[in-house]
């Protein structure tokens, strides 16, 4: 993502990425969670990190039961929770999304299934597709002890299926979430023809709709 923000010239250089295949093109078939968070009245939140938050936001905005998705930074301090500092890869933040959802419509476990199967590649370490660095790592920030237990159990469950062909790199972490700058919010919706969105994020959204038709808006 950094490359595509630095300059118009960088967009031309990004054309070389167009031939690079990746999980962004498809969903990985994985089972539903064996253990889920029980539905409770009221809205709940989930915080997930998996590469550039533009694509994560775009995928989860299309899920039935999701009321709001906010792009932001998780795992570091408030003082350095801004794009310039996070881009140095020295702040311990991960680009993440905070998902506000109705658990009576979509469960936490279902959100995790979408996260692992199509929203990002959980086998990549400190990067996703064209983006490299720890701010693009695969990480879950559980908001409750129940979420932590479910996420840990699902990672073990998926590891047993060997559906990805490589070890799952996703870690369970802790730390506050801070919203990103206004220009990052709803980025894919506002910039549907942006080179990065067209190459990396629109395929994820299409893959989600194909793999989870009953969950797509």
UniProtKB/TrEMBL annotation:
EC number(s) from the headed UniProt entry: 1.8.4.11
Catalytic activity from the UniProt record: [thioredoxin]-disulfide + L-methionine + H2O = L-methionine (S)-S-oxide + [thioredoxin]-dithiol; L-methionyl-[protein] + [thioredoxin]-disulfide + H2O = L-methionyl-(S)-S-oxide-[protein] + [thioredoxin]-dithiol
Pfam families: PMSR
Molecular function GO terms recorded: peptide-methionine (S)-S-oxide reductase activity
Active site: 52
Role according to the record: Has an important function as a repair enzyme for proteins that have been inactivated by oxidation. Catalyzes the reversible oxidation-reduction of methionine sulfoxide in proteins to methionine.
Family to which this protein belongs: Belongs to the MsrA Met sulfoxide reductase family.
Protein name, UniProt field: Peptide methionine sulfoxide reductase MsrA
Species this chain originates from: Sphingomonas floccifaciens
């Amino acid at each position: 993502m950094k490359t595509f923000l630095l300059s118009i010239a960088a967009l031309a250089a990004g054309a070389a990425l167009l031939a690079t295949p990746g999980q962004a093109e498809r969903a990985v078939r994985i089972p539903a969670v064996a253990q889920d968070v029980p539905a409770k009245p009221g809205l709940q939140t989930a915080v997930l990190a998996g590469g550039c938050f533009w694509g994560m936001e775009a995928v989860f905005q299309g899920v039935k039961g999701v009321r709001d998705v906010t792009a932001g930074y998780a795992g570091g301090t408030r003082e350095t929770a801004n794009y310039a500092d996070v881009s140095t890869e020295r702040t311990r933040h991960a680009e993440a999304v905070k998902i506000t959802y109705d658990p009576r419509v979509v469960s936490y476990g279902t959100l995790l299934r979408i996260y692992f199967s199509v929203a990002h590649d959980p086998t990549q370490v400190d990067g996703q597709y064209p983006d490299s660095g720890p701010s693009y790592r695969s990480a879950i920030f559980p908001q409750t002890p129940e979420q932590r237990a479910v996420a840990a159990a699902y990672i073990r469950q998926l590891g047993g299926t060997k559906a990805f062909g490589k070890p799952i790199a996703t870690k369970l972490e802790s730390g506050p979430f801070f919203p990103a700058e206004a220009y990052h919010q709803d980025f894919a919706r506002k910039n549907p023809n942006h080179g990065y969105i067209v190459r990396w994020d629109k395929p994820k959204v299409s893959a989600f709709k194909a793999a989870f038709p009953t969950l797509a808006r």
